[in-house]
Specification:
alpha+beta, single chain, elongated, 5 strands, 142 residues
């Protein structure tokens, strides 16, 4: 899986000192964008090629909280590519001790300029084939 490390900022936390739950979806987006960039195509380039990737579904399973100033790795990979959609898998791991904090997925539709589902252009399809694969979903605490 692709890894991108970020630090939990004070503004990312709630009153309990835990990273606010919705931030994990934002971190998934960061992981997804950085994986594509490292593979050679930015999200901007995807959109300039006439493809949008709206989210169809999102899931997060929280295992342990991330806290202020934790360095966390966002691990991202492709779980499945279909004709007009792609599912990304994610893991959020605390760098200090390697603990799995959360895992999840997002499913996206490839939309063309006309706003209708479409197959990805050849360059994007090749990129998706080259992308790291997502680890299988976790069914129990690691």
């Amino acid at each position: 899986m692709h890894r991108h490390v970020l630090r939990v900022r004070y503004g990312d936390t709630d009153q309990m000192g835990f990273a606010y739950y919705a931030n994990y979806l934002r971190w998934f987006e960061i992981g997804r964008a950085e994986m594509l960039r490292d593979l050679g195509m930015s999200y901007r380039a995807v959109e300039e090629a006439g493809i949008q990737l709206p989210v169809l579904e999102a899931q997060v399973r929280y295992l342990e909280p991330a806290r202020y100033d934790d360095a966390v790795a966002i691990e991202t990979g492709i779980a499945e590519v279909r004709r007009a959609s792609v599912r990304f898998g994610y893991r959020v791991v605390r760098e200090a001790d390697g603990r799995l904090l959360a895992w999840g997925h997002t499913e996206h539709c490839f939309l063309g300029r006309d706003g209708r589902p479409t197959r990805p252009p050849a360059a994007l399809a090749r990129l998706m084939e080259q992308a790291p694969r997502a680890a299988p979903p976790v069914t129990a605490r690691e």
